[in-house]
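As the next step, I selected for study one protein, both as residues and as discrete backbone shape codes, as given directly below:
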Amino acid sequence: MNEFKNKKALLVDTNFSAIPIYEYLVSLGMTVYVIGRNPDDFMAKSIQNYIQIDYSDLNVLKQTISELNIDYVIPGCNDYSYEICSHLTGESYLINVDDFETTSTLLNKSKFRHFALLHQLPVPQIFTLETVNQADCSLIVKPVDAFSGKGITQIAIPDFSSIQTAIETAKFYSRNGEVIIEEFVEGQLYSHSAFLTDQKINQDFIVEEYGSANPFVVDTSFVKTDFPIHLLQQVRQSIEKIAQLLNLKDGLIHTQFICSEQKIWLIEITRRCPGDLYSQLIELSTRYPYAANYAMSFIGQPLKTESSNNQTKSIIRHTITQQKTGVFYNLSFQQPLNIARYISIATTGDLLKPSPNGRVGILFAEVNSEEQKMSLTNAFLERNVYQVNFIASTETTA
């Protein structure tokens, strides 16, 4: 008998990145509702059980859960979704979501930096307005609670005026008007996606990441199977230490970090499913059931462990974006691609904004060798693979 056949789930997200989670829950026989305030989001337009509610209103969210007699609540693919769910801990319908204090420690960049420094975890050096004049390095100023590269400024040669301008920009994008000033760390950006069981890593993946349209927004990435073991050990030890110190629940923990040849720096940590169909990059590359395992922890099921670390396909994920504003017309490709999957986000006539606020689609390209992978990655970074075309006279500078 299917134990989930008569169950109801509420997925707290309507963005396209949450579709694989939705589809897995439906495959179990559940009735799945999605909730969000934007009726133009992909799942809001395409799914019958869409509830148009601003889920940041906790009282309304709780009332909706009660009225629908929801059995399981699952966070989606944005930090705010997980944060809101963390306010619901202790309820029977919420499983394996960390409490709000723990969630805030991870999501709030300032709180996480102080937590990390207290416990000797590798993070960039932080500065205050009082100590920033002592900085002998490039700086980066960020909102403590924003995402997708919004409100971030890098300052190569810090001075009072540039720092003040960067702070005002960051405050504008922060819900709480709070910012963090820290050392700008040089190195390669990676993500580490791991599934925890009893605060130990059950399965993990390293993904190499790049930004082309916006230096603070990842748009090109691939699974890194030959990541140096001594650096991987540093990452794993840090994540398991965090899991134990914070008594983290079972499930996904996703980390962005920068590394040099011998050292890593933890940049951001979250417990929600990453966006831009990151789950599909892992699944297409390795066949590991990423979206299913993300959902499993929230419905009280053990992880699906049948998997191999051996990569089955070499896949590059690229988010098609642009650096200008205009009314989208079409894409013209400048070289042939072996497209494994393409998810269209924009349609002809849509007003597109610059990255990170506008996306045309998500492209997964398959390559046959390491040389092809690096050649195509470089072409994406140089923005030579395609051209985003706008309807005449609608294009404007960002």
The CA atoms of residues 329 and 348 lie 5 Å apart. The mean pLDDT is 92.
